[in-house]
Every structure is written in structure tokens, then in C-alpha cells.
Write a structure and sequence with these properties.
This protein has eleven helices and eleven strands. By secondary structure, it is an alpha/beta fold. It folds into two domains: about 1-120 and about 305-330, Nucleotidyltransferase, domain 5 (2-Layer Sandwich); about 130-300, 2-Layer Sandwich (Nucleotidyltransferase, domain 5), CATH 3.30.420. Helix 2 (about 45-65) runs parallel beside helix 3, helix 5 packs antiparallel against helix 9 and helix 6 (about 180-190) packs across helix 9 (about 240-265). Bound molecules: 5'-O-[(R)-(carboxyoxy)(hydroxy)phosphoryl]adenosine (KG4) and zinc ion. 5'-O-[(R)-(carboxyoxy)(hydroxy)phosphoryl]adenosine (KG4) binds near residues 10, 169, 308 and 309.
């Protein structure tokens, strides 16, 4: 079957066409219109502006997605209905419902967080995954550990009590005046840090607590205090900025890795899966892969392009959930949508 996937949960208008046959998937098209340039000057996503952009971009992105393709061949229309920014979610929902109405096709509403997890199967063979799998979703809005006993069944193991990991990257980048989104910039600057000695220390919040929850707001505050006490000349120096980027990235990865590995051991996970925008981080990917494989578990991570928001993961999740409906009236955006029960 051929599924259209639509994601407008944040600052990307993302549409894709996926052909799915048993556990074989073929991407027919994948189009993303990013609003990053627009939001840069606000240092983060400005919801009213994002909503307007989705509304403006959806028809053009859809046209590109179905270029050289007869839309009547689409078997179902899937879209994110939560979690995310509600005004943005509504744009995707309304577009999908209109389209489904015109084409007389069923719809499949999708949870964005589940889609970040299942993005692991865009390129990895789903039929060979060993369960249970521990899934770490690290994005701009979420830092959550789930235990997946089977596809579609997730138990909440731990989550952030304040800021998400991606949010911490973004806020530190804002403090250092580096632009938005912070993750890719911090990662680039961290790789440029060549210092043998560290000139200060950053905290690893909650790392020694006997639970699987996270907290990143204290780390951001520590960066702010350190930055404020430096003389202007140091603050603006390349060395200082590179070291701060390096240390922030190390602190975030240390906490993510420590909590994930102890949860994996406790719940006897056979596989660990990463997902969400922060999973595109090079250092995180390398350290995770090494540490997981050293412990004789299998590490899954989507390729970088499928870590950040995209329509392919939405269509794939829709296919795997199989929850087709023609009852359009019940659909509404849910900014805080859950996928799990607390373990
Ligand atoms: O999953 P995503 O595209 O959108 C949400 O659902 O939130 O994640 C966006 C987040 C941003 O906070 C961004 O800074 C972070 O992912 N990110 C990264 C990298 N690329 C994107 N963080 C660290 N390293 C990266 N290379
Ligand atoms: Zn996302």
C-alpha cells in the first residue's frame, strides 16, 4: 500500500510517500520545507509564525511530494496529531482531512514520538529486531526512555523533569550567541575543541540518582553563570566558546548514556534504539554504538536525515499501526499526547 505521511508538529513542513509491503519499505518521495531561517532571529520556534508558514507551505510541499504521481494511487493519508505545537498540528490535520475528503481515502492519525522510535525501521529490518528494546527519544521537546515490548506497546521508564536535551543544546547556543538550532552548531564547535586541559567543570544533573529521569535546566544555568562571570574578552574568544560547546555536549551525552545503559540492564533489554533530532549528534551516535555493543546489545539508530522531523517516519508508523479510520469528526490536535503507561 502507498501512504502519504504529513508532519507539521514544529518548524518543519514535512511530507513523504511511502510504499509498504509486509516489512519492505520504499520511499517514493520525501520533501521537507524547513523554517529554520525564519525562526533564527527569535532564537527558537515562534509558534504563531510557524503556524502561518505551515499553512503557506503545505500546498507547495504536497505538489512536490506527488510530482509525477497520480494521487488517486494513495491508499491512506497519515498525519501527526500530537504531541507538538497545537496551532501547527492543526494545519497538518486540516490539510490531511481536506485531502482525504477530496480523494475519498481513509486517514491514519500518528503519534509523533512513536514515529521517532519507529524511524529506526526505515532502513533497519523490522523483522529481525530483538525485543524488549529500550528506546531513547531525544528531541527539542522530549527526553524520554520507553521500554518497547512489541511494536505499538510502550512503557514509560523515565523522562525529563524540566528541559529536554535538544532544548538544552538550543538554550546554551542562545547564551553563547550562536544561533538556532543549537545542536548542530554546538556539535561542530565541540569537534573543533582541541584543548588537552579543561578550564572549568559542568554538572551532570541527576546522574547518580537511582531512577531513569533526566534534568537539563541546571546544566543550562551552570553554563549561564560561567559565561556571565567571564571577562568580555574571554567570553567572545574562540577557545572559550569551543570548550563550552565541548563540555556541554559531553555533559549531556554522559547523562543520556549512563541512564540509558542502567535502564537497559535493569529491564534486560536486548536492543537499544535512539530517535529524535538530538540522535543526529555525531558524538552521541559514536559513544552509544560503542558502549551498547561492548555490552553485547544491539544499537539501532536512524540515519541522520531520519532523526529530525520527516514525513517518512509518519507514514511508516501509520502502516505499522494499521489504525485506518474514516471517522474524521473525532480527530483533534493534542499538544501533550502520550504513548505509554508508567512502568
Ligand atoms: O526531533 P526534532 O527535529 O524536533 C522535535 O520534535 O523537537 O528535534 C529538534 C532538536 C533541536 O533541539 C536541535 O537542536 C536538535 O534536535 N538537534 C541536534 C542535532 N541536530 C538537531 N542536537 C544535537 N546535535 C545535533 N547534530
Ligand atoms: Zn520531532
Amino acid at each position: 500500500m502507498i501512504i502519504l505521511g504529513i508532519d507539521t508538529s514544529c518548524d518543519e513542513t514535512a511530507l513523504a510517500l511511502l510504499k509498504a509491503e509486509k516489512s519492505k519499505f520504499e520511499i517514493l518521495s520525501n520533501v521537507i520545507s524547513s523554517q529554520i531561517e525564519l525562526h533564527k532571529k527569535y532564537g527558537g520556534v515562534f509558534p504563531a509564525l510557524a503556524k502561518r508558514e505551515h499553512q503557506k507551505n503545505l500546498p507547495t510541499v504536497f505538489k512536490k511530494t506527488i510530482k509525477n504521481f497520480d494521487p488517486s494511487r494513495i491508499d491512506a493519508i497519515s498525519f501527526t496529531y500530537g504531541p507538538g505545537l497545537e496551532p501547527c498540528l492543526w494545519q497538518g490535520i486540516n490539510f490531511a482531512l481536506d485531502l482525504a475528503n477530496n480523494l475519498k481515502k481513509p486517514i491514519i492519525p500518528v503519534n509523533h514520538i512513536e514515529a521517532h522510535i519507529l524511524a529506526n525501521f526505515i532502513e533497519n529490518d523490522i523483522s529481525s529486531v530483538q525485543l524488549p528494546a529500550l528506546c531513547l527519544v531525544v528531541s527539542g521537546g522530549h527526553t524520554t526512555l520507553f521500554l518497547m515490548e512489541k511494536i505499538g506497546c510502550y512503557k514509560l521508564v523515565g523522562e525529563t523533569k524540566d528541559d529536554a536535551a535538544g532544548e538544552c543544546f538550543d538554550k546554551v547556543a542562545r547564551i553563547l550567541d550562536l544561533g538556532y538550532p543549537g545542536g548542530p552548531i554546538i556539535s561542530k564547535l565541540a569537534a573543533e575543541f582541541k584543548g588537552e586541559f579543561l578550564s572549568f567543570e559542568l554538572p551532570r544533573p541527576m546522574i547518580h540518582q537511582k531512577n531513569y529521569d533526566f534534568s537539563f535546566s541546571g546544566l543550562k544555568t551552570a553554563v549561564l553563570y560561567n559565561y556571565k562571570k567571564q571577562p568580555l574578552k574571554i567570553r567572545k574568544s574562540k577557545n572559550y566558546i569551543r570548550e563550552m560547546a565541548f563540555q556541554t555536549q559531553q555533559a549531556i551525552i554522559d547523562v543520556l548514556l549512563h541512564k540509558t545503559l542502567s535502564a537497559a540492564e535493569n529491564f534486560k533489554a536486548k536492543t537499544i534504539m535512539l530517535g529524535g533530532g538530538v540522535a543526529a549528534n555525531k558524538e552521541l551516535r559514536e559513544r552509544f554504538k560503542k558502549d551498547i555493543e561492548d555490552r553485547k546489545m544491539t544499537a539501532y539508530m536512524p540515519s541522520k536525515e531520519f532523526c529530525t522531523d520527516n514525513g517518512v517516519m509518519i507514514a511508516l508508523t501509520a502502516y505499522l499501526s494499521g489504525k485506518k479510520t474514516t471517522n474524521f469528526k473525532k480527530i483533534k490536535a493534542d499538544g501533550n499526547l502520550n504513548i505509554s503507561a508508567k512502568i
